[in-house]
């Protein structure tokens, strides 16, 4: 005996009703927890990277003995010369930018752990400002670093990284750490955009 189409429809619906399906609310909660965990990890990583960048350049100094030719008819005189990060304003700006970003990452991480509501918009704006600040510091330090590495023949600025090699390597390491920290702050902004998109 063949079953009617109506009966088949009702039996199929009954079978589907017997299967437990995840509710949209459970999926939203899972996605929210995943975004929150990712945000905490990104803020912790940005905190550590900007802190490391500020420390690596903040303790950077090197002293070398350089021969200086005073008079062409006399042999060169060996003079001790030091290279320190605070001798250049671009490096000072870099350290200050990373210190500010590190402090902000610490306080924003505390707010994220507490889960305080009503600060999402302010956090996104501050994240964007931190990204701009870090990229400004990285750009200034990179420009000066390239001059120290290659020099500038047009204005007769000699390169110094062939003399202060360890100092320049430490500057490059600090720049790398700060650049990765900047990328993490960019990802935090993207996480906030995804959260707002799913909310509205």
Strand content: 5-15%
Whole-angstrom Rg = 29 Å
Could you give the count of β-strands? Answer: 2
Amino- and carboxy-terminal Cα gap: 52 Å
Shape: elongated
Find the structural class using helix and strand composition.
Answer: mainly alpha
Helix and strand sequence: HHEEHHH
Number of helices: 5
Helical proportion? over 70%
Mean pLDDT value: 83
Explain what the structure shows.
A two-stranded antiparallel ribbon has the order 1-2. It has helices at residues 5-18, 24-58, 89-114, 120-150, 165-199; strands at 61-68, 77-84. Helix 2 (24-58) packs antiparallel against helix 5 (165-199), helix 3 (89-114) runs antiparallel to helix 4 and helix 4 runs antiparallel to helix 5. The relative contact order is 0.14. The chain is mostly helical. The two termini are 52 Å apart. It is built from five helices and two strands, in the order ααββααα. Residues 9-16 have low confidence and may be disordered. The chain has one domain (9-199). It is elongated and about 80 Å long. Helices cover 70% and strands 8% of the residues. A hairpin with an 8-residue loop joins strand 1 (61-68) and strand 2 (77-84).
């Amino acid at each position: 005996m063949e079953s009617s189409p109506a009966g088949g429809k009702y039996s199929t619906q009954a079978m589907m009703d017997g299967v437990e399906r995840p509710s949209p609310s459970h999926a939203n909660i899972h996605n929210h927890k995943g975004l929150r965990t990712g945000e905490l990890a990104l803020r912790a990583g940005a905190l550590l990277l900007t802190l490391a960048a500020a420390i690596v350049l903040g303790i950077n100094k090197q002293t070398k003995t350089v021969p200086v030719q005073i008079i062409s008819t006399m042999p060169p005189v060996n003079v001790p010369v030091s290279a320190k990060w605070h001798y250049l304003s671009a490096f000072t700006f870099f350290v200050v930018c990373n210190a500010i970003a590190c402090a902000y990452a610490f306080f924003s991480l505390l707010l994220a752990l507490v889960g305080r509501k009503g600060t999402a918009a302010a956090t996104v704006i501050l994240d964007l400002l931190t990204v701009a600040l870090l990229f400004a510091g990285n750009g200034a330090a990179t420009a000066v670093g390239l001059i120290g590495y290659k020099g500038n023949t047009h204005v007769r600025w000699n390169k110094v990284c062939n003399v202060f090699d360890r100092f320049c390597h430490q500057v490059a390491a600090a720049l790398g750490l700060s650049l990765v920290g900047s990328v993490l702050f960019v990802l935090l902004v993207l996480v906030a955009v995804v959260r707002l998109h799913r909310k509205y």
